[in-house]
Automatic annotation (TrEMBL):
PANTHER family: CHROMOSOME 16, WHOLE GENOME SHOTGUN SEQUENCE, PRE-RRNA PROCESSING PROTEIN
GO cellular component term of the entry, any: fungal-type vacuole membrane
InterPro entries per the UniProt record, alphabetical: Ig_Tag1-like_4th (IPR059065), Ig_Tag1-like_5th (IPR059066), Tag1 (IPR046368), Tag1_C (IPR055011)
Upper taxonomic lineage: Eukaryota, Fungi, Dikarya, Ascomycota, Pezizomycotina
Comp. bias regions, Acidic residues: 637-652
Protein name: Uncharacterized protein
Domain Tag1-like fifth Ig-like, first and last residues per copy: 656-766
All copies of domain Tag1 C-terminal, residue ranges: 369-483
Disordered: region residues: 627-656
The organism of origin for this protein: Periconia macrospinosa
Domain Tag1-like fourth Ig-like: 499-613
Pfam families in the record: LEA-2_1 (PF26174), LEA-2_4 (PF26150), LEA-2L_5 (PF26153), Tag1_C (PF22786)
Amino acid sequence: MLGFLASAGIEEYAMQAADFKPTKLSLDSLTADGVKVQVEGDFTMDASKVHKQSVRNLGRFGTWIASEVETGSSEVDVYMPEYDNILVGRALIPGIKVSIRNGHTTHISFFADLKPGPFDQLRNVANDWIDGRLGQIRLKGKAQVPLKSGLLHLGKQTIEESLVFKGHDLPTLPRYNITKLNLREAYDGHKGMGADASIVVTNDFPFRLDVPPVSVDVLVDGCTQSDHITVGTAESQKLEIKPNTDLEVNVTGKVEKLPESLTQVCPDSAKSPLDAFIGDYMQGQDATLYIKCCKFPDPSTPKWAGDLLKDITVKVPFAGRDMGNLIKNFTMANVHFSLPDPFADEGSPDASPKISAVVKVNIGLPHEMNFPLDVSRVRADSDIYYQGKILGKLDLKKWQHANSTRIDAQEKGESTLLVESDIENAPIDIVDNDLFSEVVQALIFGRRPVMMDIKAKVGVKVDTPLGELAVKDIPAEGVVPVKPIGSHKGSNDVSKFAPKIGNLSIIDTSPTSLILQAHANITNPTNYSATVPYFNINVLVNETVVGQAMVKDVDVHPGNNTDIVVTVVWDPFTYGGKAGKTIGSEFLSQYISGYNVSFTFQAHNKTIPSQPGLGEVLSHFPITIPAPSLSGPKDPDDPDGPDDPDDGDDRDDSGRKRSHFIRSATMHIISSTALFTLASPFHSTTMYITALNATAYHDGHPAGVINYDIPFAVPPGLSESPRLPVDWSLSSIGYDAIRKALGGTLKLKAFANVGVQVGEWTERIWYQGGSIGAHVRL
């Protein structure tokens, strides 16, 4: 039996049958070169765990005889073979007496002194474990243990054992949850910011440990993952860790000054490390903090503790917060639109319409933010959505001045920050013209606000207790209601835009065209103003293009806008071909004759040359207005002029009084001639009658015919024609009425085919005049 106890057989039996279950592991005290720990547990010999029956039977018999075994004090060294056999640590264990009979349990309680191995080597292992580079850990323990059983000394036994931990057996960093976070100004008038956090750490380990107060550095990623930037420090008070009990840790942090490397833009990037960190956090993604160990403020803490943990860095995910609902309200006032530079290159910034406005944004502040904020500048790169589709982009790349006011929370609500900014000439890039057409239609004809979704990456310059910070690419979303133009009852038609045109003059001509200038008065029913550097629009009659109208350098403000200079090119042949020329001639004939005629303004893809898409959208909203009435000067000596109240039968289709080109006539019976008083519609242009074939009627009966082909001038204002030869219809009722009116006046109507010339432009039109006051003389 004694031979067996001293043989390798007992070693095999002991290693397989011995079972130790720790019930308590606690830190008793710190020593000058390590720690004193108390170990408690239950030791049992379980023969059923021995594989070989012969070893099991002999072991049970031998340990029944020996009954107890006592060890002397010993040193246990633990190595890591995969790391060049570095010494992990050494444990000084006192003598222990245990029962070695099968099935007997001995409760053990002892104190051991633990000393760590070389610090530099241990830190390398710790960093590999923290960074997840360890697939497994193999520990090799070695000790020489003096043994005796009763009075029998068995000498020193050399014990070596290797343990492998891998997969879920590897210890991991404990789980944690940040239950409270408060960001504030530094205490006691110090510069910088402070933070208070409460963290609950899950403790699944069966040990008890008192941790002295500890201070750590807090770092974030720099421009590269290997580059970490220190931003502040954090401290915890003394912690009492209890076995298998979750731990609540209260941490106080402070940031005195941000290093320049944190706010400087990284090479080959538009972001600084601070931008990247805050961007991840505010998009709901986990940002990353690094905790660099460790300093112990308590001077009684042994120096070796700091040396051992020095420079060990733990990567800590910092759970982000989705800031998608950060914007509580978004309004725009004093809105001013500027149309693009008409001759800018398509796609360039100058080719986009621009907006200036006072923007007011109410931003919800997370409850953690309890320090003063003052926003001094803002910029944004925004996408504008309508009904879930992207409409365009609002580019605010340049910093815009801003100011902010904090509005404290009421009861359980959250505080907000009201930011106001004057944005100037921010380009708007429309990316979906069909969708933009729907928006314009909703604004013109709708009654309810048009809801625009804004998704932006916002940059802000903020004055904080740390100084001015520039933070870029903060995600922000909001809904902007845009009031429709036709929001008032009875105002949902485009007639509110219709201009009134007057002061018509001809400034140039060509063989096929007249270039006219007019002054327009227009009412802007919106609250928006606009700057129009150039705007070109088609003029249509009966859906046929007969010319174009242009305005330049016009500022339109809400309400009445007067004396807007409009240039009109009248050229039916060039724009509409032969059909256009025929339609143009018919329009002018009806217009000269005082008929109720109208024309249509319609945008086209060259309305704004640098923005063909915008012109195409606006082309869906033509505006039809009545032609301005011919309003030549009034002859005060003509009682039978067009304003005579007796002329009740001479009105157009709408009941409006017709204005006559021929104001009066004098018929000379003996000389068979007629003299006409003419009222030119132009204020500064002389036109010419190149040919005239006219018939005068009384009560529908012809009275005479004028056929005259010698040109004569019609200057501005009132003028007289030359005496024109008349071929009387001698046997007609009409001529008889003229003869009977000798010495008096007679109402005549006339129909004529007329050749007209202004400068180089010529045209053949017809003219129908009604209720002309004709004086009859010999």
